[in-house]
# Entry
Amino acid sequence: MKKLIVGQSGGPTSVINGTLAGVYYEAKKKGFDKVYGMLNGIEGLLQERIIDLDDYFQDKNNLELLKRTPSSFLGTCRFKLGGFEKNEETYEKIFKILDKHSIDSLIYIGGNDSMDTVESLSDYALLKKKKQNFIGVPKTIDNDLPITDHCPGFGSACKYIATTLREIIQDNNCYGDTKPTIAIVEIMGRHAGWLTASSALAKDETCEGVDAIYLPEIPFNIDTFVKETEELLKKKSSIVIAVSEGIKTEDDQFICELTDNNLLVDSFGHKELSGCAEILSKVLKEKLNVKTRAITLSTLQRAAAHLASKTDLEESYHCGMKGADLAYQGQTGKMVYMSRISNNPYKIKYKVFDDIHKIANIEKKIPLEWIDVDNNYVKEELIDYLKPLIQGEVKQIYKDGLPQHISLKK
# Structure
């Protein structure tokens, strides 16, 4: 009997369950006798918290609901395995549990930290001649994984951001010229500005778009920011500015650190960034004596399944299918990725990257040549890259006026 286990890790997306659906569907199609789910990722596996996915998804209607359900159906974690030498007991416990359940393959759906886990487990298995194989399937709204053209989850977050920015711009315009108003919108993305750049998609013939975009790839200066905003106020009364949560000064200090609050740090050493919109809003209010508003999109960027991109969901599903196919072949230490063939018409190909070591813990940032530094904006090349990813709408399954989701049995 062939058995597979799949887990989800890191921050959820609105389509990460689409990847899980793709893994399950293709694994059963290929002939895996059992497809298990680990609850709360590797951390849950260490506690032997395992479920049989047949109990949920032999019913095809449930599989369709899963695709449309936000967050991580199996739950998630941020758990760092660490090196073999100091943590061999932990590694051995994992393989003992896998052996106990006769599991041949493990698929981990996640971002940078999840690929670190796939790398560690596959390396240990090869070193100790274990029988299991390990495959990584990408996801992250931050879009900061190298090799892949883009990550599942990113397109839907872009669609939500661009839609919300367009609505904020309309709302901010309501005072006309009677009351200058500045809205600063803080967008996720950590050290990479991909999500914040997607705010440029709000602009079209019906919407003037955001007035400035500040990305973490470019050092941020508060005095310059105040002067640039003051210049904008001379031209118009309603201003909307998009800022990345990860913007920082030339000496590498995050803007959100310019308070007395200490930022929390996760097990991988990542600071939990937030608060720069509030800080910059207060600065502008004090310096320019105008009405300001800080808006933080926060969790909504990754949870808004009602605004998911159909393109993103379909790609998420196919990445999961590709991962299951690799697991069936017995490949290990590899990651599924997407390669863009063309923009217009938009075409991608699902491929396999052979060396997980060149992916784990490496961040992909926006190429500087795609950033319009002089105008605090992005260039057409970046907009052309983003546009295909937000296309299409996902038809939700409604009951009593609200979209339906699936959850674990209690």
User: Anything to note?
Assistant: The radius of gyration is 22 Å. The longest strand covers residues 334-343. Residues 154-302 form a domain with the Rossmann fold fold (CATH 3.40.50.460).
